[in-house]
Amino acid sequence: MHGRGGQGVVTAAEMLSVAAFLEGRHAQAFPSFGSERTGAPVVAFCRISDTEIRLREPIMEPDCLIVQDPTLFKAIDVFGGLRPRGYLLLNTNRSFADLHIDNVAANLPAGHAVEVAASEVAMKHVRRPLPNAALLGAFAALTGLVHLDSVQKAIEQTFAGKIGAANVAAALEAYTIVAARSSADATV
Amino acid sequence: MLKQIEGSHAMAEAIALCRPEVICAYPITPQTHIVEGLGDLVREGALQNCEFINVESEFAALSVAIGASAAGARAYTATASQGLLYMAEAVYNASGLGLPIVMTLGNRAIGAPINIWNDHSDAMSMRDAGWIQLFAETNQEAVDLHIIAFKLAEELSMPTMVCVDGFILTHAMERVDIPDQAQVDAYLPPFEPVQVLDPAEPVSIGAMVGPEAFTEVRFLGHYKQTQALSLIGTYSAEFKQAFGRDSGGLLRGYRAEDAEMLIVAMGSVCGTIKDVIDEMREEGIAIGLVTIVSYRPFPTDELRGVLAGAKDVVVVEKAIAPGLGGPLANNVDMALRNLPKSPRLHSAVAGLGGRPITKASLHALFRRATVQPWEGTHFLDLNAVVVSREIHGSRKKRRSGPTAENILRRLAETPTQAAE
Fold this sequence. Notes:
The complex is a heterodimer. Chain A is α/β, with parallel strands linked by helices. Chain A has helices spanning 9-22, 72-75, 102-106, 118-125, 132-143, 148-158, 161-187; strands at 2-4, 26-31, 41-49, 64-67, 87-91, 113-116. Chain A has one domain (2-187): 3-Layer(aba) Sandwich (Pyruvate-ferredoxin Oxidoreductase, domain 3), CATH 3.40.920.10. In chain A, helix 1 crosses helix 6, helix 5 (132-143) runs antiparallel to helix 6 and helix 5 runs parallel beside helix 7. In chain B, helix 1 (7-17) crosses helix 2 (34-44), helix 1 runs parallel beside helix 7 and helix 10 (269-282) crosses helix 13. The chains are: A alpha/beta, B alpha/beta.
């Protein structure tokens, strides 16, 4: 997961690991360690497995990539190592073509690369441009690796009360957007 | 109870279950979330009968723990990196006085150059201070080792450091089984000090000792470490009986029985090494791992027993003793001494200042140990191009400038040069 300091990238990886844990799986979430500064590029990782996870190296060839900030790939190579059959989830209100990265999307299997305007979804529900929870909802719809209700429970465990509920709503809306797109793709 | 939890918070919960009575905290970088988590537990009332004392420095943190322990309280603190160096004088005092403080060390590099990331330099800087030093492989083991550490420290009246890889474990969220209070209470008896500042029975602790007695006091410190060699095994076995899982011990073998090549390592890198071993075993290579849990006391005899049958021993460690090589390799060498048919020892230094230790690099390293063994200390993934340019540059020009800045500049100049 790539993002910028302050966007909740580390929290997103942790929430995803909690969602997987709630489904009885092993999960390991960890940040790319550095001096945390608001706005600086941040990477966080999450491994999910049915067996104990012993590996401690950073994930260099991800199966799934979540990019929380579409300006990042001007600064760093966020797509490096993404596996040929991997998934790409990008937070943007523009298209891959607009961003000149349609070649990245085209190299992945059909339906594996999705843009979603998660910051806008977050603004609507959470009233702050914190796209992490919404992106996890979208991630559940895109990959099916975790269920939406596990994601929602993980969000509730992380954020109490109203903020939790707002983030849960954001996750649901982003999930619905991506699920609708996937079913539209499937009928084409 | 199984939880998906950050390492630091899991340790905070485990330490709270040990009912510490005084926690000294200097919660500023370099630190972990452990004392912060404990502070929350004290404030919320979840941890009762505990003084949480904010102090003005790491030196004060351990000094207050020393005072508290001398007054008969179960005392705890945590630190990392430069923080440990700043409390160095008190580290030696705690062990010299024989006070059973438990301290977490969230292992990190020591500057200069400034670096906040993980390696074992900090632990190595205090390896001769007289503390027991236990290294955790996972966050589960980090939790368990703290519970064992209080029992061990208090039985021997000797301070114990639980070394946990900074960031890699302390900041990782993973599955941890947190014991319940009744389990920990049954395992860990209340603290019964062997020496205590008590107005009813006054004593002084910390006498000046001249040449006539200093050797004897030091001998007894060493003697207690040798006692720890057997107690660590006993308490880890008792832990397994009470909690149902293997944690601690002096050392642990993994696929070691029939191995011709044995890797020796400490801490979280052992997990990655196990994955590499499984992959190499698939290819028919007889390779295994020995995880050192207890670095002080060093389990020389046990290690000799495990390593005796191997042809090659590769030590992978996250520290360098400049001018000597790897400190762990040096200790392993001691265990191999006088064996009738000693395995070949290969020393590798890896993961300094937070450099990731990857499976790919370990595969190459372990293969190289048999086909192309190296002399001395091998620096895993060293960028030889940048290093040789710097050496060459400093020979050509007297005022060659600061090393760290030069290396950063050369790296920026050669972005495509991959590590050797």
